[in-house]
Design goal:
mainly alpha, globular
Length: about 290
């Protein structure tokens, strides 16, 4: 394409083959497939965590951090699992899994990608609580919505870094640049990974449609927790947890795009919300 910013940068990215990408951590993938409400759910997840020293250490550090603030020291994964409960433990395992998946990518892009996902997950969880929706699924969906972008960062960190350094009017404007570089954008890449990794179909809509009608029939609106991911993604950007350079997004304007019940559950003060998210990110980063 003549005049392409990517051609001008002389970038060459590997062909997009999801089956050849590094696999998502097996424990996190298994956690994504476990369903709540079954008697075996918590013991099964606890056994998975105990089988991996890195995940065990991470869970114990988080259980003993100010983020959780239990009244006593937590000395075993079993104790941490019982105190955290299945839903919180699953969320932590998936968050640690995404961090582990991105460890091979150098520089600040890694950190920004992970921070954006954690911020989106926290926002979606808060919005879901106000809407009477599944908080655990909303958080997990927020963490996983950008898994296609995370994979692109893992596959070609230098090339993707140059793309994010260019200004874009809005997040969706980066999608054409991604397609030119990889042959797919990060929404399409995320959906491909959901299929390749045999994740629940619920994540197809989350990964493919979080930038709105561009990847969705405008006549078929998102429903349930999925409807919260697109505005949560934009709000994460507005609060400063963005991966690329966008013009300043107004906090009040982005909040207005949430359903009314979800909107009431979000802090009125942007600085308060930023502080809450930053505190959780710091705790997770210490793991």
């Amino acid at each position: 394409m003549a005049g392409s910013p990517l051609r001008a940068l002389n970038l060459v990215a590997p062909a997009w083959r999801p089956e050849q990408l590094p696999p998502f951590p097996a424990i996190a993938l298994h956690a994504l497939s476990l369903m709540p409400g079954r008697d075996t759910s918590l013991p099964a997840l606890c056994s998975l965590v105990r089988s991996d020293p890195a995940f065990s250490s991470a869970i114990l550090k988080i259980a003993n951090s100010p983020l959780v603030a239990f009244s006593r020291n937590v000395t075993s994964v079993m104790q941490a699992s019982m105190l955290l409960g299945f839903r919180r433990l699953k969320c932590v395992v998936i968050t640690v899994g995404l961090k582990s998946y991105l460890q091979g990518s150098p520089g600040p892009l890694l950190r920004s990608c992970w921070q954006h996902s954690v911020a989106c997950g926290m926002i979606a969880e808060r919005a879901a609580a106000g809407s009477g929706l599944d908080r655990e699924f909303a958080y997990t969906a927020g963490i996983m919505h950008d898994i296609g972008r995370a994979a692109m960062v893992a596959a070609a960190p230098q090339e993707y870094s140059r793309v994010t350094e260019e200004e874009a009017d809005e997040p969706g404007k980066l999608l054409p640049r991604e397609r030119e570089l990889f042959g797919v954008d990060h929404c399409e890449a995320g959906a491909a990974l959901v299929k390749t990794w045999n994740l629940p179909d619920d994540f197809l809509e989350i990964t493919a449609c979080h930038h709105g009608p561009f990847h969705r029939d405008p006549g078929v609106p998102a429903s349930g927790a999925a409807s919260l991911i697109a505005p949560s993604c934009r709000l994460a950007d507005a609060l400063g947890f963005a991966l690329a350079k966008y013009p300043a997004l107004r906090y009040a304007e982005v909040i207005s795009t949430f359903p009314e019940a979800a909107r009431r559950a979000l802090p009125r003060d942007a600085d308060v919300f930023v502080a809450e998210i930053a505190e959780e990110i710091r705790a997770m980063e210490s793991v």
